[in-house]
Amino acid sequence: MIEFHNAGYGYGGRELLTEMTLSLAPGSFHFLTGPSGAGKTTFLKLCYRELQATAGRVSILGQDTREMGRDEVAQLRRKIGVVHQDCQFLDHLSLAENVALPLTVADRPRDDQDLVDLLAWVGLTEQIKAKPPELSGGERQRAALARAVIMSPDVILADEPTGNVDWEMSLRLLQLLVELNRMGKTVVIATHDMHLIRQAKSQVQARVLRISNRRIQQSGADL
Ligand SMILES: Nc1ncnc2c1ncn2[C@@H]1O[C@H](COP(=O)(O)OP(=O)(O)OP(=O)(O)O)[C@@H](O)[C@H]1O
Q1: What is the CA 211 to chain-centroid distance, rounded?
Q2: Residues near 187 by beta carbon (within 8 Å), at least 6 away in sequence
Q3: If you measure from the C-alpha of residue 180 to the centroid of ligand 1, how many angstroms do you get, rounded to a whole number?
Q4: Which Pfam families match (predicted)?
Q5: Ligand 1 proximity of 36 Cβ (cutoff 6 Å)
Q6: According to DSSP H, which parts of the chain are helical?
Q7: How far apart, in whole angstroms, are the C-alpha atoms of residue 117 and residue 71?
Q8: Would the CA dihedral through 168, 174, 180, 184 be positive or negative?
Q9: Whose CA is nearest to atom 24 of ligand 1?
Q10: Which CATH architecture has domain 2-218?
């Protein structure tokens, strides 16, 4: 699904990540962890071709990212849902309109019942008409998750999805991501939260990728 072949990345010629060889199999569930500044967000950006490897090769859904043109990148992005660390919304649009925005941008028809069902799934039925500034941190995170999955992507990449929420909300978000994985989606969650990783143990066969000293180490066994 996503393959790194001796890949590396550096900003401004300074190597941040090096010699990454790994494969994220379809339907797998991974946590990505490591100290602040280790390169977790950078790694995720390589996974959806926001960045291109500066060494080696990354393939996403069978395509070598070096050989992709603009249209192919746009196609690819529809198959990968990203929950960004700082989840930005358009404040003048309602929650429902924000969540449906990827459909609008891709010029795809919007099924209002699907949208209502999706918002119910993330527990935001009552906030459907609310504007983003009226939402709590946990509500924003769940809205960001809904927006990431509205195009039915094959892969969900979540960057610190539980960063600013309490433990109960973290568990709820984890539950949603586990449900997506049970539906066959490949899930990668970048997190510092070791409690969350331990908690996942009882729910899903997750693997841990740890960035340390510029390299990615994979825990060999399931959690
Ligand atoms: N656009 C950029 N230009 C230059 N350096 C950058 C850029 N983006 C990130 N960096 C640097 O790369 C390093 C890794 O950043 P990254 O955001 O990938 O780390 P992270 O592991 O996600 O951190 P955190 O856990 O704090 O979110 C940091 O030192 C950061 O300052």
Answers
A1: 17
A2: 28, 29, 30, 155, 156, 158, 177, 180, 181
A3: 28
A4: ABC_tran
A5: yes
A6: 40-47, 70-78, 95-105, 112-121, 137-149, 167-182, 194-200
A7: 30
A8: negative
A9: 36
A10: 3-Layer(aba) Sandwich (3.40)
Residues 6+ apart with CB under 8 A from 189: 30, 31, 32, 158, 161, 177
Q: Which residue has the tokens 């309490």?
A: 166
Mutation choice for ligand 1 from 11, 44, 211, CB with most ligand atoms inside 8 A? 11
* Atom number of ligand 1 nearest to Cα 38: 21
- Model confidence pLDDT, tens digit, residues 139-167: 999 999 999 999 999 999 999 988 878 88
Is 0.90 surpassed by the pTM of this model?
Answer: yes
- pLDDT tens, position by position, 59-106: 999 999 999 999 999 889 889 999 998 889 999 999 999 999 999 888
